[in-house]
Design goal:
Rossmann fold; binds adenosine-5'-diphosphate; two-stranded antiparallel ribbon; alpha/beta; 9 helices; 229 residues; globular; binds adenosine monophosphate
Length: 229
Protein backbone atom coordinates (compact mmCIF):
# COMPACT_ATOMS: atom_id res chain seq x y z
CA UNK A 1 0.00 0.00 0.00
CA UNK A 2 1.20 3.52 -0.69
CA UNK A 3 1.18 5.25 2.69
CA UNK A 4 -1.87 7.45 3.04
CA UNK A 5 -3.95 5.81 0.28
CA UNK A 6 -6.67 3.18 0.45
CA UNK A 7 -7.62 0.85 3.26
CA UNK A 8 -4.99 -0.53 5.61
CA UNK A 9 -4.27 -4.25 5.29
CA UNK A 10 -1.59 -4.80 7.93
CA UNK A 11 -3.12 -3.72 11.18
CA UNK A 12 -2.30 -3.96 14.88
CA UNK A 13 -4.93 -3.50 17.62
CA UNK A 14 -3.26 -2.13 20.74
CA UNK A 15 -4.90 -1.48 24.09
CA UNK A 16 -5.35 -2.77 27.63
CA UNK A 17 -6.83 -6.20 28.31
CA UNK A 18 -10.62 -5.98 28.14
CA UNK A 19 -10.70 -2.95 25.83
CA UNK A 20 -12.66 -4.90 23.21
CA UNK A 21 -9.84 -5.68 20.75
CA UNK A 22 -10.76 -9.32 20.20
CA UNK A 23 -14.47 -8.60 19.79
CA UNK A 24 -13.78 -5.96 17.16
CA UNK A 25 -10.95 -7.83 15.43
CA UNK A 26 -13.07 -10.95 14.93
CA UNK A 27 -15.86 -8.97 13.28
CA UNK A 28 -13.72 -6.69 11.14
CA UNK A 29 -11.44 -9.47 9.93
CA UNK A 30 -14.47 -11.55 8.91
CA UNK A 31 -15.90 -8.60 7.03
CA UNK A 32 -12.67 -7.78 5.21
CA UNK A 33 -11.51 -11.36 4.60
CA UNK A 34 -8.41 -10.75 6.71
CA UNK A 35 -6.66 -13.08 9.13
CA UNK A 36 -7.50 -12.36 12.78
CA UNK A 37 -4.37 -13.36 14.62
CA UNK A 38 -4.89 -13.39 18.38
CA UNK A 39 -1.80 -14.68 20.18
CA UNK A 40 -3.92 -15.11 23.32
CA UNK A 41 -6.36 -17.40 21.45
CA UNK A 42 -3.53 -19.44 19.94
CA UNK A 43 -1.83 -19.81 23.32
CA UNK A 44 -5.12 -20.81 25.01
CA UNK A 45 -5.65 -23.44 22.30
CA UNK A 46 -2.16 -24.79 22.98
CA UNK A 47 -2.89 -24.95 26.72
CA UNK A 48 -6.14 -26.84 26.06
CA UNK A 49 -4.33 -29.23 23.75
CA UNK A 50 -1.61 -29.71 26.38
CA UNK A 51 1.21 -29.55 23.83
CA UNK A 52 4.76 -28.32 24.55
CA UNK A 53 3.90 -24.68 23.84
CA UNK A 54 0.82 -24.90 26.06
CA UNK A 55 2.79 -26.45 28.92
CA UNK A 56 5.39 -23.67 28.66
CA UNK A 57 2.76 -20.90 28.49
CA UNK A 58 0.20 -22.06 31.05
CA UNK A 59 1.80 -20.80 34.29
CA UNK A 60 2.65 -17.38 32.83
CA UNK A 61 -0.88 -16.94 31.49
CA UNK A 62 -2.64 -17.95 34.70
CA UNK A 63 -0.54 -15.47 36.65
CA UNK A 64 -1.24 -12.70 34.12
CA UNK A 65 2.39 -12.39 33.01
CA UNK A 66 3.64 -12.31 29.43
CA UNK A 67 4.71 -15.58 27.84
CA UNK A 68 8.41 -15.50 26.76
CA UNK A 69 8.99 -13.56 23.53
CA UNK A 70 10.65 -16.39 21.58
CA UNK A 71 7.59 -18.65 21.97
CA UNK A 72 5.15 -15.95 20.87
CA UNK A 73 7.32 -14.75 17.99
CA UNK A 74 7.59 -18.27 16.60
CA UNK A 75 3.77 -18.55 16.47
CA UNK A 76 3.30 -15.18 14.79
CA UNK A 77 6.05 -15.70 12.22
CA UNK A 78 4.64 -19.09 11.25
CA UNK A 79 1.04 -17.86 11.09
CA UNK A 80 1.76 -14.76 8.98
CA UNK A 81 3.65 -16.86 6.43
CA UNK A 82 0.50 -18.88 5.60
CA UNK A 83 -1.54 -18.02 2.50
CA UNK A 84 -4.61 -16.84 4.45
CA UNK A 85 -2.64 -13.86 5.74
CA UNK A 86 -2.00 -12.59 2.21
CA UNK A 87 -5.18 -10.49 1.91
CA UNK A 88 -4.46 -8.70 5.14
CA UNK A 89 -4.27 -9.29 8.88
CA UNK A 90 -5.26 -7.85 12.22
CA UNK A 91 -2.83 -8.58 15.03
CA UNK A 92 -4.71 -8.70 18.34
CA UNK A 93 -2.61 -8.89 21.51
CA UNK A 94 0.70 -8.77 19.67
CA UNK A 95 3.16 -7.10 19.95
CA UNK A 96 3.08 -6.71 23.73
CA UNK A 97 6.52 -5.13 24.33
CA UNK A 98 9.26 -3.30 22.41
CA UNK A 99 11.31 -6.42 21.75
CA UNK A 100 8.31 -8.06 20.04
CA UNK A 101 7.59 -4.89 18.04
CA UNK A 102 11.15 -4.72 16.77
CA UNK A 103 11.22 -8.42 15.93
CA UNK A 104 7.93 -8.06 14.01
CA UNK A 105 9.44 -5.31 11.88
CA UNK A 106 11.86 -7.89 10.45
CA UNK A 107 9.08 -9.95 8.86
CA UNK A 108 6.05 -7.67 8.39
CA UNK A 109 5.41 -4.08 7.38
CA UNK A 110 2.62 -2.45 9.35
CA UNK A 111 0.26 0.12 7.88
CA UNK A 112 -1.92 1.05 10.85
CA UNK A 113 -1.81 0.69 14.62
CA UNK A 114 -5.12 1.34 16.36
CA UNK A 115 -4.96 2.37 19.99
CA UNK A 116 -8.13 1.39 21.92
CA UNK A 117 -8.64 4.30 24.32
CA UNK A 118 -10.73 3.44 27.36
CA UNK A 119 -11.28 4.34 31.02
CA UNK A 120 -9.58 1.69 33.26
CA UNK A 121 -12.79 1.33 35.32
CA UNK A 122 -14.65 0.20 32.22
CA UNK A 123 -11.91 -2.33 31.49
CA UNK A 124 -12.35 -3.96 34.92
CA UNK A 125 -16.11 -4.16 34.33
CA UNK A 126 -15.60 -5.76 30.91
CA UNK A 127 -13.04 -8.28 32.21
CA UNK A 128 -15.05 -9.35 35.25
CA UNK A 129 -18.13 -10.13 33.14
CA UNK A 130 -16.30 -11.82 30.26
CA UNK A 131 -17.14 -15.46 29.59
CA UNK A 132 -15.76 -17.53 26.73
CA UNK A 133 -16.64 -20.71 24.94
CA UNK A 134 -13.84 -23.22 25.59
CA UNK A 135 -14.68 -25.01 22.32
CA UNK A 136 -14.87 -22.25 19.70
CA UNK A 137 -13.44 -19.24 21.57
CA UNK A 138 -16.48 -16.99 21.08
CA UNK A 139 -16.43 -14.15 23.61
CA UNK A 140 -19.50 -13.12 25.62
CA UNK A 141 -20.24 -10.71 28.44
CA UNK A 142 -22.76 -11.30 31.22
CA UNK A 143 -24.33 -7.86 30.68
CA UNK A 144 -23.29 -6.43 27.31
CA UNK A 145 -23.19 -9.58 25.20
CA UNK A 146 -25.08 -12.40 26.93
CA UNK A 147 -25.61 -15.72 25.16
CA UNK A 148 -29.18 -16.61 24.08
CA UNK A 149 -29.32 -19.40 26.69
CA UNK A 150 -27.64 -18.47 29.98
CA UNK A 151 -24.22 -20.10 30.36
CA UNK A 152 -24.24 -21.80 26.92
CA UNK A 153 -22.45 -20.91 23.68
CA UNK A 154 -24.82 -19.78 20.90
CA UNK A 155 -22.75 -21.62 18.31
CA UNK A 156 -22.08 -25.04 19.81
CA UNK A 157 -23.90 -25.18 23.15
CA UNK A 158 -20.71 -25.66 25.20
CA UNK A 159 -20.75 -24.47 28.78
CA UNK A 160 -19.21 -20.99 28.98
CA UNK A 161 -16.26 -20.46 31.32
CA UNK A 162 -14.44 -17.58 32.94
CA UNK A 163 -10.80 -17.29 31.84
CA UNK A 164 -8.51 -18.04 34.82
CA UNK A 165 -6.68 -14.77 34.09
CA UNK A 166 -9.93 -12.77 34.31
CA UNK A 167 -10.07 -13.37 38.07
CA UNK A 168 -9.24 -10.31 40.15
CA UNK A 169 -5.67 -11.29 41.21
CA UNK A 170 -4.51 -11.92 37.65
CA UNK A 171 -6.32 -8.85 36.30
CA UNK A 172 -4.28 -6.66 38.63
CA UNK A 173 -1.03 -8.16 37.30
CA UNK A 174 -2.17 -7.86 33.67
CA UNK A 175 -3.03 -4.18 34.01
CA UNK A 176 0.39 -3.55 35.56
CA UNK A 177 2.12 -5.52 32.79
CA UNK A 178 0.18 -3.50 30.22
CA UNK A 179 1.21 -0.17 31.78
CA UNK A 180 4.86 -1.14 32.15
CA UNK A 181 5.57 -3.19 29.02
CA UNK A 182 2.88 -2.60 26.40
CA UNK A 183 1.90 1.05 26.80
CA UNK A 184 5.39 2.23 25.72
CA UNK A 185 4.51 0.87 22.26
CA UNK A 186 2.10 3.79 21.85
CA UNK A 187 5.01 6.21 21.69
CA UNK A 188 6.99 3.84 19.46
CA UNK A 189 4.21 3.68 16.87
CA UNK A 190 3.37 7.37 17.22
CA UNK A 191 6.95 8.17 16.23
CA UNK A 192 6.63 5.86 13.23
CA UNK A 193 3.48 7.77 12.15
CA UNK A 194 1.32 4.61 12.34
CA UNK A 195 -0.79 5.31 15.43
CA UNK A 196 -4.46 6.29 15.41
CA UNK A 197 -6.68 6.36 18.49
CA UNK A 198 -10.21 5.01 18.66
CA UNK A 199 -12.67 5.73 21.46
CA UNK A 200 -13.37 2.20 22.75
CA UNK A 201 -16.25 3.21 25.05
CA UNK A 202 -19.85 2.75 23.91
CA UNK A 203 -21.61 -0.23 22.44
CA UNK A 204 -19.77 -2.76 20.24
CA UNK A 205 -21.57 -1.40 17.16
CA UNK A 206 -20.60 2.18 17.96
CA UNK A 207 -16.97 1.16 18.31
CA UNK A 208 -17.06 -0.90 15.13
CA UNK A 209 -18.49 2.02 13.13
CA UNK A 210 -15.59 4.21 14.31
CA UNK A 211 -13.10 1.49 13.45
CA UNK A 212 -14.48 0.91 9.99
CA UNK A 213 -14.09 4.57 9.13
CA UNK A 214 -10.58 4.57 10.46
CA UNK A 215 -9.45 1.45 8.60
CA UNK A 216 -11.12 2.45 5.32
CA UNK A 217 -9.42 5.78 5.14
CA UNK A 218 -6.22 4.83 6.91
CA UNK A 219 -3.89 7.64 6.15
CA UNK A 220 -1.85 7.85 9.32
CA UNK A 221 0.47 10.51 7.99
CA UNK A 222 -2.34 12.64 6.62
CA UNK A 223 -3.97 13.37 9.99
CA UNK A 224 -2.93 14.12 13.49
CA UNK A 225 -1.54 10.82 14.87
CA UNK A 226 -3.64 11.05 18.00
CA UNK A 227 -6.83 12.19 16.33
CA UNK A 228 -9.81 10.14 17.51
CA UNK A 229 -12.76 9.14 15.42
P1 LIG B 1 -9.77 -7.71 24.63
O1 LIG B 1 -9.61 -8.61 23.44
O2 LIG B 1 -9.30 -6.30 24.39
O3 LIG B 1 -9.16 -8.29 25.89
P2 LIG B 1 -12.60 -8.46 24.48
O4 LIG B 1 -12.95 -8.19 23.06
O5 LIG B 1 -12.45 -9.88 24.90
O6 LIG B 1 -11.32 -7.57 24.94
O7 LIG B 1 -13.75 -7.76 25.37
C1 LIG B 1 -13.71 -7.85 26.80
C2 LIG B 1 -15.14 -8.07 27.32
O8 LIG B 1 -15.93 -6.90 27.07
C3 LIG B 1 -15.87 -9.22 26.63
O9 LIG B 1 -16.69 -9.84 27.60
C4 LIG B 1 -16.72 -8.54 25.56
O10 LIG B 1 -17.92 -9.27 25.27
C5 LIG B 1 -17.03 -7.20 26.19
N1 LIG B 1 -17.07 -6.09 25.24
C6 LIG B 1 -16.31 -5.92 24.12
N2 LIG B 1 -16.61 -4.75 23.51
C7 LIG B 1 -17.57 -4.15 24.29
C8 LIG B 1 -18.29 -2.91 24.21
N3 LIG B 1 -18.07 -2.04 23.21
N4 LIG B 1 -19.20 -2.64 25.18
C9 LIG B 1 -19.41 -3.51 26.19
N5 LIG B 1 -18.79 -4.69 26.31
C10 LIG B 1 -17.86 -5.01 25.39
P1 LIG C 1 -5.04 -11.97 25.65
O1 LIG C 1 -5.95 -13.04 25.15
O2 LIG C 1 -4.48 -11.09 24.56
O3 LIG C 1 -5.63 -11.19 26.81
O4 LIG C 1 -3.77 -12.73 26.25
C1 LIG C 1 -3.89 -13.62 27.34
C2 LIG C 1 -2.51 -13.99 27.88
O5 LIG C 1 -1.75 -14.68 26.86
C3 LIG C 1 -1.61 -12.81 28.28
O6 LIG C 1 -1.89 -12.33 29.59
C4 LIG C 1 -0.23 -13.45 28.17
O7 LIG C 1 0.03 -14.31 29.26
C5 LIG C 1 -0.38 -14.32 26.92
N1 LIG C 1 -0.05 -13.55 25.70
C6 LIG C 1 -0.90 -13.22 24.68
N2 LIG C 1 -0.25 -12.53 23.72
C7 LIG C 1 1.03 -12.41 24.14
C8 LIG C 1 2.19 -11.78 23.63
N3 LIG C 1 2.17 -11.12 22.47
N4 LIG C 1 3.35 -11.86 24.35
C9 LIG C 1 3.40 -12.52 25.52
N5 LIG C 1 2.35 -13.12 26.07
C10 LIG C 1 1.17 -13.07 25.41
Amino acid sequence: MTPGHGPARHIVFLGPPGAGKGTQAAELARELGFLHLSTGDLLRAAVTEGNELGRAADGHMRAGRLVPDDLVLAIVRERLARPDAARGFILDGFPRNLAQARALEAFATLELVVSFEIDPRLVVQRLSGRRICPTCGTVYHLDSRPPRVAGRCDRDGSELVQRPDDRAEAVEVRLKVYAEQTAPLLEHYRRLGLLRGVDAAGTPSEVSARLRRLVAGAAPEARSPTERL
